[in-house]
Specification:
With 231 residues, the protein is α+β, with helices and mostly antiparallel strands. It has 4 helices and 5 strands, in the order ααβαββαββ. The chain has one domain.
């Protein structure tokens, strides 16, 4: 009788050990999956940040009228796929281009060229955010699947952004399924941005890079901003 009870105790103890081991195995598996998801999200964000940085540099070349290789698009010798309108970018050797007070008016539009041809799109002035009823980048179409973004105010629509390489012919060598980063440019004079009474142009660039993950509110994205002054 005692021998049978001893065997029964061993069976119960073994079952308890099996349950504990199973629970530990499930917890370890969940932890591994969680860490894998975190690593995947980190890789996705790193990729999006890298693309956003590429778009910042691309926007600077767009402002200067340069191709990705540093040659000028404002030259008869270069045939860029898309070009900004004549007189809105400095010609080769045009050192005095930015000292003309009319430049800010020529190169930017309040609605960023919403209803204009591609060559006039994506460049905004100091009145754009007021007309948008919010920071202009918050009402912009970033082509990331989030259709909720659009301006309020007098614009009342999603304003345009520029895909990487549009005006610089820069190649995009992302992995399969990768989406080109995009940017927009806001133009400010020195009195508007710094309060100083001198003619100096500042370009605030907003760039968005995208990861590979597509969610209900759009793709994984990273937004970066920089202020660039060519003079």
């Amino acid at each position: 009788m005692k021998h049978q009870r001893h065997h029964g105790f061993v069976l119960v103890t073994s079952l308890i050990f099996l349950i504990v081991l199973s629970m530990l195995g499930v917890m370890a598996l969940r932890s591994s999956l969680f860490e894998e998801r975190m690593a995947s999200n980190d890789r996705d964000l790193s990729l999006a940040r890298e693309y956003a940085e590429l778009a910042l540099r691309d926007a600077e070349r767009d402002i200067l009228g340069l191709r990705f290789d540093g040659t000028s698009c404002v030259s008869a010798a270069i045939n860029c796929t898309a070009e900004r309108p004549a007189g809105t970018r400095p010609p080769p050797g045009g050192d005095n281009f930015w000292s003309d007070a009319s430049v800010a008016t020529n190169i930017s539009m309040t609605d960023g060229g919403l209803t204009s041809e591609l060559a006039r799109q994506g460049v905004y002035n100091s009145e754009s955010s007021t007309a948008c009823g919010m920071p202009v980048w918050s009402g912009a179409d970033w082509n990331d699947g989030n259709n909720a973004r659009q301006c309020a105010g007098t614009i009342g629509d999603a304003v345009p952004t520029i895909p990487y390489g549009t005006f610089t012919d820069a190649p995009f060598n992302g992995p399969a399924g990768a989406v080109r980063p995009r940017y927009l440019i806001e133009v400010f004079t020195s009195p508007e941005l710094t309060g100083q009474d001198n003619f100096k142009l500042f370009f605030r660039i907003t760039a968005v890079g995208f990861g590979r993950t597509q969610g209900a509110t759009g793709r994984t994205s990273v937004t970066l901003q920089s202020v660039f002054s060519p003079n």
